[in-house]
Design a protein that fits this description.
- The chain has a 5-stranded parallel beta sheet, with helices on both faces. A 4-stranded antiparallel beta sheet has the order 6-7-8-9, covered by helices on one side. Strands 10-12-11 form a 3-stranded antiparallel beta sheet.
- A hairpin with a 2-residue loop joins strand 8 and strand 9.
- Helix 1 crosses helix 5 and helix 6 packs across helix 7.
- The chain is globular, with a radius of gyration of 18 Å.
- By secondary structure, it is an alpha/beta fold.
């Protein structure tokens, strides 16, 4: 069963989300605040594929804090943030903390389910590759991308990646030295039916640079191609 954790303090919205996810075949667990969400996560042994978190929740743990806590516990769980249109900086903060995507309120049931489905497929693919002992590796200079355990190393030292970051790196490694358009990266990683904004690519690139570049503000590996997108250089 596809397990999903929904944390939203507004009961009407939470019930709306849970009902539609259950209709789409998900085993949905609901929490009214961040503390409750983390408690459910621990009680279930972290056995969740996706988490949907409202950014603005009362108490010690708002959506951003829960996102950070979940990402520290797992690089595999898919995380989607729910935000109001006015929470632009919070959206970016959520992505920088490890969220995979965000959905802006108000949203339609079909939009939310489509976003969740896209994240779930990514998580499920990773699990299948691991279970089948998928051993293929992609090597680029000092970097090695292991497609079985979804890991990246540099000179043997591990670099923690989220599922989204891994897919971006896999796309780069498969196209070394090629200028990749933002829209192509978006379609490859988030899917051709993704209805979000291209800036989600830029935020994830910023996050990746912080992890792999010696000088993130002067990148040598993930190079900006002005007016187009990005290029991977392994030198």
């Amino acid at each position: 069963m596809k397990k999903i954790l929904v944390a939203e303090d507004e009961q009407a919205i939470r019930e709306f989300v849970v009902i539609n996810l259950k209709r789409a075949g998900y085993d949905a667990y609901e929490a009214s605040n961040g503390e409750e969400a983390l408690a459910i996560y621990e009680k279930e042994g972290g056995d969740f594929d996706v988490a949907v978190l409202d950014i603005m929740m009362p108490g010690k743990y708002d959506g951003l804090a829960v996102c950070k806590a979940l990402r520290e516990k797992s690089g595999n769980i898919g995380i989607i943030m729910l935000s109001a249109r006015t929470q632009e900086m919070d959206k970016v903060s959520g992505l920088m903390m490890g969220a995979d995507d965000y959905v802006t309120k108000p949203f339609s049931p079909s939009e939310l389910v489509a976003r969740v489905d896209a994240i779930y497929r990514r998580v499920a693919l990773a699990a299948v590759r691991t279970e089948n002992n998928f051993k293929e590796q992609l090597v680029s200079g000092d970097f090695t991308l292991n497609l079985r355990n979804r890991s990246l190393t540099r000179k043997g030292k591990p670099i923690e990646l989220t599922q989204v970051e891994f897919q971006i790196m896999e796309y780069f490694f498969s196209n070394p030295g090629v200028a990749l358009d933002r829209s192509d990266i978006l379609k490859h990683v988030w899917g051709s039916n993704y209805v979000g904004e291209e800036k989600i690519v830029d935020v994830n690139i910023r996050r990746l640079r912080m992890k792999i570049e010696e000088e993130p503000s002067n990148p040598r590996h993930i190079v900006t191609v002005w007016g187009l997108g990005y290029r991977w250089e392994h030198k």
